[in-house]
Amino acid sequence: MIRNISIENFRGFESISISDMNRITLISGRNNVGKSSVLEALFLMMDHSSSDSFGKISGFRGSITGGAASLWNPLFYQLDTDREIRICVKDDHQSSCLCYRKDHDYLPFAANGVPEDVLAAFRLVTKNSYSLYYSYDSENYHEEGHFFLNGTNALREIKSSLPGNELKILPVTRWLNTTVTRLSDAVLNDIGNLELKGKKGEVVTILQELDPAIEDIMTLSIQGVPQLYLKIAGKHIPIQYAGDGVMKLLQVCIAAMELKNGILLIDELETGLHYSMYGKLWAILERISATSSCQIIATTHSYELISAVQSNIQSSNDFAYYRIGHGKKGHTAYRYDLNMLGSALESEMEVR
After folding, report:
1. Whether pLDDT at 196 is above 60
2. Residue 351 pLDDT more than 90?
3. What is the pLDDT of residues 30-69, one digit of tens each?
């Protein structure tokens, strides 16, 4: 479980530290204060060795990738690519640090036998776009490499301190987007896996807390395309017709159930859910995260969602809340435990 994270020169953060995170961690703050950037930093840390990690980050924001200018430059604080990005986390067992910096001199192929004019032309290209050097250190493990562009695609070259250049396995991490438009293939796969494990009944029970009329959930193949259906009053209804609330709850809960010992990142947790559901949502998430040992780190703008925590999270050891503020001295994360948050809400303090 991640306990601390410190971020330097990433997105809008020159520096910020968040300490004493719990199994359920909620982050709030004003618009553009960096809530989503905290999730992105965590995602990069856990997915850093993937050649598509930067494409995924761009996709979370709906950006179109088109070279270093759109893929890597926006990651640097104030777009200053001369400043090294540094992301460090501490979990229950060890500390890890991930660093990125630009590299104009890297050649992604052996230089032996390559004519000097070809090398000169390539160096000219890299000066315009640059490769991205990174290093990752965790206790006795070291990893370093480069990401470079081949057209619009990012490629990677990695070396590790393990035999055979093997990479260290990190906790599985999943990101859920704010807008629910359709269920991903991952949800269909998760439903199938849970049914094979005999846990589909738990999913149905959760959905019934939102709509007691739901009798079952199943995958049906329609013209060769698998689709999710709900059984309501004996009729099979495509889940899209059940509304965003059902789909959002399904995505969140199934992801948490499947991410055993993993990390679930949710941007704007309240999106698609009516405020009357918030209390049940917290109770469900506390129950699922405890059963699957899945850490849930989410952001929100909703005062109602924050208020619903107090009477629906049972264990103070399960929950931590942070309000990110930005002042003359930079960004600061103010921590509230369950009791402190309750006192602040009762005093009608602004906690968002």
Report:
1. yes
2. no
3. 888 999 999 999 999 999 988 888 888 888 877 665 666 6
What are the extents of the domains in the chain?
2-170, 174-317+332-346
* CATH code for residues 2-170: 3.40.50
Question: Minimal CA–CA distance to 204: which of 214, 213, 194, 196?
Answer: 214
Do 89 and 5 meet the contact criterion of CB atoms below 8 Å apart? Answer: yes
On average, the pLDDT of the chain sits at: 86
The superfamily CATH assigns to domain 174-317+332-346 is: P-loop containing nucleotide triphosphate hydrolases (3.40.50.300)
Between 281 and 193, the more confident residue is: 281
| DSSP state string for 228-242 | EEEEETTEEEEGGGG
Instruction: At 345, give phi and psi (nearest 5°).
Output: -65, -40
The span from the CA of 9 to the CA of 16, in Å, is 9
Whether 2-170 and 174-317+332-346 share one fold: the answer is yes
- Which spans in 197-277 are helix H? 200-210, 244-258
pTM, to two decimals: 0.90
- Tell me which amino acid residue 202 is: E
306 phi/psi in degrees, rounded to 5? -65, -45
Cα–Cα distance, 321 to 220 (Å, whole number): 40
Residue 77 amino acid letter? Y
* Amino acid found at 214: I
Q: Which residues contact 155 (CB under 8 A, 6 or more apart)?
A: 51, 108, 147, 148, 149
Give the 3-state secondary structure of residue 148. Answer: strand
Q: Which tens digit of pLDDT belongs to each residue from 281-308?
A: 999 999 999 999 999 999 999 999 999 9
**DSSP one-letter code for 339:** H
**CA neighbours closer than 13 Å in the CB half-sphere of residue 13:** 27
